[in-house]
Specification:
By secondary structure, the chain is α+β, with helices and mostly antiparallel strands. 25% of the residues lie in helices and 37% in strands. A 13-stranded antiparallel sheet has the order 6-5-4-3-2-1-13-12-11-10-9-8-7. The longest helix is centred in the last third of the chain and has 16 residues, at 474-489. The chain starts with a helix and ends with a helix. Bound molecules: zinc ion (2 copies). One zinc ion is lined by residues 337, 339, 342, 416-417, 435.
């Protein structure tokens, strides 16, 4: 009925003496006029944006809600060929926090050219990125006033749902190639204030990617923002202060994908492989990928340490655990810390009925995580909703029965995260941990703090059973920490 009523209304408007522009079109027209006029916008071929700012550390900060860890971004240059869907970004990022890859500046070069997303390594070698990355980068092209208005002005675009929010006029735009965006403009200046699009995030589910625009300046007769801030959900992921921007400049460069990437097939995730290594009677190391888990047998149940990465990895690990001991129920999963790659399988574990054991500073995050909608890419929990069962750890928690003792200890004071737990097996003299020490890693910035925790707890350890890398003798950790001492004294 509402549809019919609006058709009647539209017909009445169309037959009226003064034809009125639909509200959704008016918002786009107003924005185009404020930015420099539709004709001028449609004539733009390339944009070059240079600046500096910061990137966030989404999903890898000290606590689930923190946004304090940032990379300082310098030498930023973004070149966009607005007509052909090509963009290339170069930037140098320098961590302002204790980063596992070290503190040195890293140059990054990446882009998308139609269906081909690519990354260029420091060596100059270009590799193709997967189709999910390509899709997100294609959407990101429209997170700028010029590109979104060009798309909205295309007669093949669909404009809908005009509305007012917080003194802004808002309209939904479906581009001719089927991508969906929300554009907001300032009710007074009519300049675009933000562009929003939705995507899937393994941990957060349906998330809004929002780029907001401020500090408009005149560039060759166009009003362009000099401050761009990007958020994923509520987390700020990038802030850019523009130092130079140019329209149709000579230095846009060649934005075609490098030949090595363009000629390669889009990579697909390798098949999930779960290998089993006996660590001690009733203790198995489940490896075979980049993120490992440990299965622990108790008298009447099994406990898994770590549900990493995503559904595919964690469901395969759970299946393997049940295969190893089919006669005992797998009832619990311990989370080493909240970081996205180490908690990306928690929803899958919940869908399998497991009780989560995690540091108390992660509890709210897991409550939220389990409640979040995953409609864009429905995961195991979206298909099989289950409530979260969680037991939290403050400083320590003993998992003990007649056959087994496992002590979960918080790793206090680590610069890696505040939610870190390690699992100590006093009889077997093994220590299970993730990220704070990876045997064989070139850099071990978190190892000295780990050693302080081991010493303070007076733990007797023979072997480190890590959640990355290979199982190694405790003596290797001792050597790493001793080697770090002279450097720390400098
Ligand atoms: Zn981590
Ligand atoms: Zn890790």
């Amino acid at each position: 009925m509402r549809h019919l009523a609006s058709l009647v209304l539209a017909a009445a408007v169309a037959s009226g003496a003064c034809t009125q522009t639909p509200a959704e079109q008016q918002i786009v027209d107003d924005a185009a006029e404020a930015v420099g006029g539709a004709e001028r916008i449609l004539a733009v071929k390339t944009l070059v944006i240079e600046g500096e700012g910061s990137n966030g550390n989404l999903g890898q900060d000290m606590t689930p809600d923190a946004i304090g860890q940032t990379f300082t971004v310098t030498d930023y240059k973004r070149a966009i060929d607005v007509g052909s869907g090509r963009v290339r970004v170069e930037q140098t990022r320098t961590p302002t926090f204790t980063f596992f890859q070290g503190q040195q500046p890293q140059k990054q070069v990446f882009g998308v050219d139609g269906a081909v997303a690519y990354n260029v390594a420091a060596s100059g070698n270009a590799t193709r990125a997967n189709d999910v990355v390509a899709k997100d980068r294609r959407a990101e092209i429209y997170h700028h006033p010029i590109t979104i208005l060009r798309a909205a002005l295309d007669p093949a675009a669909t404009l809908s749902n005009p509305r007012t929010q917080d003194n802004q006029s808002v309209v939904d735009i479906t581009t001719p190639d089927g991508l969906m965006f929300t554009l907001a403009i300032d009710s007074t200046t009519k300049l675009p204030t933000r562009v929003v699009s939705m995507t899937d995030n393994t941990n957060l589910g349906d998330v809004a990617i929002e780029t907001s625009f401020a500090d408009y300046q005149d560039v060759d007769g166009l009003q362009l923002p000099a401050l761009l801030t990007t958020k994923t959900d509520k987390y700020t992921t990038a802030e850019l202060r523009v130092t130079r921007q140019a329209v149709d400049a000579a230095d846009a460069g060649d934005l075609a994908a490098p030949a090595a990437a363009a000629s390669a097939a889009a990579p697909v995730p390798p098949p999930v492989m779960v290998t089993v290594e006996d660590v001690a009677p009733g203790v198995w190391w489940l490896a075979g990928g980049s993120h490992h888990s440990v299965l622990v047998e108790f008298a009447d149940h099994l406990t898994l340490i770590e549900a990493p990465q995503n559904d595919a990895r964690t469901l395969a690990v759970i299946a393997k655990a049940r295969e190893i001991r089919p006669d005992k129920p797998l009832t619990h999963v311990v989370n080493s810390h909240h970081h996205f790659d180490h908690s990306g399988g928690i929803r899958a574990a919940v869908s399998e009925g497991l009780t989560v054991i995690a540091h108390k500073a992660s509890a709210q995050y897991f409550q939220d995580s389990v409640a979040r909608p995953h409609t864009i890419v429905p995961d195991a929990l979206a298909k099989n909703p289950m409530p979260l069962k969680i037991e939290t750890v403050d400083e320590e928690l003993e998992l003990k029965d007649a056959t087994r003792t496992v002590n979960l200890y918080r790793i206090a004071g680590s610069p890696h995260a505040v939610t870190l737990l390690m699992a100590y097996f006093p009889q077997e003299r093994i220590l299970v941990l993730g990220d704070v020490y990876t045997p064989g890693a070139a850099l071990t910035p978190y190892a000295p703090n780990l050693m302080e925790n081991i010493t303070a707890r007076k733990l007797s350890v023979d072997r480190i059973v890590p959640l990355h890398g290979m199982i190694g003798p405790y003596g290797d950790l001792v050597k790493v920490v001793q080697a770090a001492k002279p450097a720390a004294a400098n």
